[in-house]
UniProtKB/TrEMBL annotation:
<dbReference type="InterPro" id="IPR036388">
    <property type="entry name" value="WH-like_DNA-bd_sf"/>
</dbReference>
<dbReference type="InterPro" id="IPR015943">
    <property type="entry name" value="WD40/YVTN_repeat-like_dom_sf"/>
</dbReference>
<dbReference type="InterPro" id="IPR042197">
    <property type="entry name" value="Apaf_helical"/>
</dbReference>
<dbReference type="InterPro" id="IPR000157">
    <property type="entry name" value="TIR_dom"/>
</dbReference>
<feature type="repeat" description="WD">
    <location>
        <begin position="1005"/>
        <end position="1046"/>
    </location>
</feature>
<protein>
    <submittedName>
        <fullName>WD40-repeat containing protein</fullName>
    </submittedName>
</protein>
<dbReference type="InterPro" id="IPR036322">
    <property type="entry name" value="WD40_repeat_dom_sf"/>
</dbReference>
<dbReference type="GO" id="GO:0007165">
    <property type="term" value="P:signal transduction"/>
</dbReference>
<dbReference type="InterPro" id="IPR019775">
    <property type="entry name" value="WD40_repeat_CS"/>
</dbReference>
<feature type="repeat" description="WD">
    <location>
        <begin position="1175"/>
        <end position="1216"/>
    </location>
</feature>
<dbReference type="InterPro" id="IPR002182">
    <property type="entry name" value="NB-ARC"/>
</dbReference>
<keyword id="KW-0853">WD repeat</keyword>
<dbReference type="InterPro" id="IPR020472">
    <property type="entry name" value="WD40_PAC1"/>
</dbReference>
<feature type="repeat" description="WD">
    <location>
        <begin position="918"/>
        <end position="960"/>
    </location>
</feature>
<feature type="repeat" description="WD">
    <location>
        <begin position="1048"/>
        <end position="1089"/>
    </location>
</feature>
<dbReference type="Pfam" id="PF13676">
    <property type="entry name" value="TIR_2"/>
</dbReference>
<dbReference type="InterPro" id="IPR027417">
    <property type="entry name" value="P-loop_NTPase"/>
</dbReference>
Amino acid sequence: MQESLRQETGPSRKRRKIRSPDVFISHAGPDKLHIARPLSKKLHAQGLNCFLDKTSMEPGDCGPYEMETAMESAKVAVFILSPEFAARKWTMRELRCFLRRRREAIESGMRAPTLIPVFYRLSIRECRELEPDRYQDDEGKNIFEVEKFFSEKRQREASTELVKRELQELADITGIENDEEATNDLEDEFGHLARENLVKRVSRWVKKKSEEDSSDEVREVLNASGCTYDLFRPCILAELNPEEIYLQLNSRGIDGSPNTCEARLKEAVLSTDRNTYIGATATGKGGVGKTCALRAIAHDDDVKARFSGGVYLMSLGKDANVGRLIEQLCIAVEASGGNQAAAKMREQSELSRVLTKMRAWFNTRVCLFIIDDLWAVNGIDACILQKLSTLAAATGDMRERRSRLLYSTRDSKLKHVGKQVTFEPREREGGDSVHMLMLAGGANPEEANDPRCKKAVSEILKMCAGLPLALNVAGTGVRYMRDRWEGEKSQAWEAYLSKMKRRNTLRSESPEDGYSSLDATLHASLDIVESGIGSDGERLRQFSFRKIHRSLCVMKKQDGMPLALVRELWEMDYESAEKYAKQMERVGLVDLHYDKDCEWVRMHDLTHDFAVQEAQKEESVTFWYKKLADVCRQGRGLLAITESEGRESKDAREKYVFESIYRVLKQGGCVEELKRLFLSARWVKTVIQKGGVWQYGEAVKDLSSFLRNTGGSESLSRGTGEEDSVYAMELMMRAARLSVPFCGEGSAGIYFQLYGRIKHRASELGSVQRILEEIERHAPRPWVRPVSECVERADGRLVEQIVLPYFGSREIQVGMDSSGQVYGCQVKESGAEVTVFTQSAEKETKIVRLEGEFETESQSPGDVEARSVTSEVTEKKRSVTRATCATFCERKGYVVVGCEDGTLRLWSTSEKKVLRSFHGHRSKVACVAMSGDGRLVVSGSEDSKKIRVWDVETGAKVGKVLGGHTGLVYSVAMSGDGRRVVSGSHDESVRLWDVETGAQVGEALVGHTSSVLCVAMSGDERRVVSGSEDRSVRVWDVETGAQVGEALVGHTSSVLCVAMSEDGRIVVSGSGDKSVRVWDVETGVQVGEALVGHTGYVYSVAMSEDGRRVVSGSRGKSVRVWDVETGAQVGEALVGHTDGVLCVAMSEDGRRVVSGSGDVRVWDVETGAQVGEALVGHKREVNSVAISGDGRCVVSGSFDKSVRVWDVERGITLYVGRVKDLGEIKSRFLRTEDLGTGASRAGRTSHIFSREGGIVQRREDGSEAVLAELDDPEDLQIDHDHGVAVARVGHLVAIMKLVV
């Protein structure tokens, strides 16, 4: 099988000799002699491998193949454009190929080929507005008519409109214009010089682009360290059918058409009819042979010859979800050599992006993708076939051969594609049924007519009613008996029939079909293996074959169970379990599968239904789930899994137990045990380490709902003091979710996070206290124990946190879509990088960094030109610019970045490069926003008081410049449909604009008393909200221009960002006071307390459509998601500063900490409690503190230029002095030197130290472990003498103890 594929796809003599070309030159015949051939010679002279049609081939080469190979592999393509180029078939095919390669590469994040159009005898305008009637040859005939461009065949291949679109797409790429006015006219005295100069210009740019591609290729594919890269290897990814399976893929009737289900399915797969869609769907009930037919087709010689890129079978099942589908797609890519490509696919959370990367991997290969047993369940929607079919639509070669998809399904809700082939039971006693039964039974077909067994065979056929699964099980049962029969072989048929009749209990309402007798065949198989024929005995430790078979009811459909775990369920050693599993496999009861040094047991779905049915009759399914739970506990119990560090499980058994334990305990009725597991800090720690937080969260929600709805927990119903357990479970789940961004796989760092997020509930909830005690017992040493509030509480209004890779600038944008996905972008402080982030509804975070193209220069060939835009940057020399602002359209994957040089740049997040630049502003772009559909972008700059709107796809300016402000424009926003723009300005006004006309809508909205820094618009465009330097938020009625209600006042610093709900009734604002506030517009009242926790100014906010969730971004590294509806604060009161903490210091004995903010506070290190009352007296913020060795005296300095000395015990001021005397005052009252720098006081290095916001341990082997990670801490100090650490985190004073 594999050899035949290698022979077909392996290199021939010629293919081994020619390497992939650097440059492909596409041209029409008239331009070969004067442009194409001179260009090819010049490029060859420069050391480039150039492909120029047949001149690059040798006798014996296959022309179409060589052309296709060159087109699919060339890094740079040059298109010499002329009327003949547009009219001819092959030139447009070449262009079509490169445009497709370019689009697919952009979509998948891979490097695209460079396309360089040479506008030789077809100008840019003519490419954009092609008029075929205009062009005539030397004889006066229309060129397009001569080339049969308008013929039905040509139009069917590529219509006039398609050709126009393709030329327009090419014209959007910056190319080389024929400034020399070169022509093919040989009578032109200076024509040869013009052509020579044009060729020089083209060759210079081609060489430059080729060198860029080569250097990138070296970096990306094979670097100096010798890293490997993916190499495509076609393969057949499908199991072989057992030998006893009877199928007729090539069977034909008298009329020559296929006359079996499998033959019709094969014909549909191989069909070349252009009207046939890209796939075929096999439908029918279970057990009718669909899976076997798919396997047989995968290994068929005709199919392998047709699909040279390989055949890839993926199996799903009724229990499958989107995650399993994605994993199966990744396995197909891995099987074909794409290990790195599969790894990138697994990083995606959306199926559409996985399919994009998969299309890019298979690209030009002609493949058959087979997906077996597909259902619209568990997040897989009814249109899944159409989505998957894009795989075939976008893959294939240039000989018009396409990949195909083949499906099987039992789900009537699925919308089918392609030819539908329905599988049904065979004719009861027809030839197919006879062959199936005889082949499975290991008998000659003629045996069916043997008088000695004819009657028995006939009755078995009638009972199986042509159902392939029943026929196969019956046949394998007979084979098993025949192989062990001591008498006449034919008598085995009668013996089997008697067993079958004895067990023929009807299971379906229709006794006329094979399903009614399938149970009888399965019972007969069990009777056979249990009868002692060929086995060592009827029972083994009281476990009959019937019992061990029905024990498999605990398996998931279409999923296997490790034999290592099965043997524990059967209570026998591995060798015995394998022996008896093989016996059951021989009679069609189970399948054994070997994968990665592990043996797995599987069952057909209908056989699984039988096992469930039998278990319900006997012990009950719950009994077996309890039994499996006992097996999972064996050894050192479930928590033994928690002792391994990292994501990888030690073996398949452990991995299976970890992934299945929620289902096993729930189905086994072990609710109390499952609850205890969820309340175990060690288990939750392991969940975080193994990346299973999302699944764990769903399981906790399910169990909590069950307990609340059914009262299934004794502790809840009897009031035994455990009423808090459900709440504690949910608290731990939220703590785990919030902890993920701040911890790796080390246990110490995870325990620090969990402990800190739940400790405030310990005094009132016994479950929480027990969790803390468990952490203290099992945390590895050393570890860091939070004493005070160091991290956000798990039951606060903060529900999610996204940690970005660096401390950003004030330029950050956040958003949230209807599904709950959070997205946004952040500009790095230096302006040299933009980070784009998304967090899916499943809480999977993806971060993309855009860097390396913040430079200004004139455009070069191969770059995308912004149409209808004239660059105002006249300097040709390259210079570096900085990003100043950005906006992200998640729907299209576009980021528009405003730059210091006045340009805007459209980035593709998938390709990580600039698609086009917009030129028009003369200086720094100050603000930018995009319409909801991603079609338009609006920007304001510091060069004027005007606003510009741009078309994202073309780069053209839309409408007139929006002018009317008398001060700098600080903020812009755009309606979802792009029809309206709202702006805020230094002139203290808010203005609304009509994009199409450029006119201001109504009068300016006036009321703020200082600069308007931020604006937003409601979804219905009826209201506008603005925030100002005057610390107020105001809402405006667009129609009347009147302010809605009073100003919303509460922030203590400038309002930097605002957002509004769809209906305009709820507003959210962020401020320089580091808080987020939510407002009810109708009442003018703040909703709940301010949302605090950010460590920097809040520069961006957004709101979900229903107004229940708010997302905010600050200058710090984290983006936060808040639950607006969460009730009042629970647990211990959050005692402390209400503003940001500016300074901290520790006492020399390590027992007390002092902090400065708007006031001064002293803290007890052991308890985390505040000592006495806040020390109040300074008129401005306190920016310097120091404390005496015994912690009784504090010195503080303030921005009010005063220094105060405090008596901590009495809470009074002992002395007031001046800042310039601070040193003298500290020496006088504290009697020690510079105690404000506890970190330096130790004067030595340690194996525990602070770095990048965390406390790190360096182990003896040189490795490092993060013991604690804080959210943007400042002034992190460690007192090694007393094992104390302190830092300021926003408004919190983080006090921690080192436990060694």
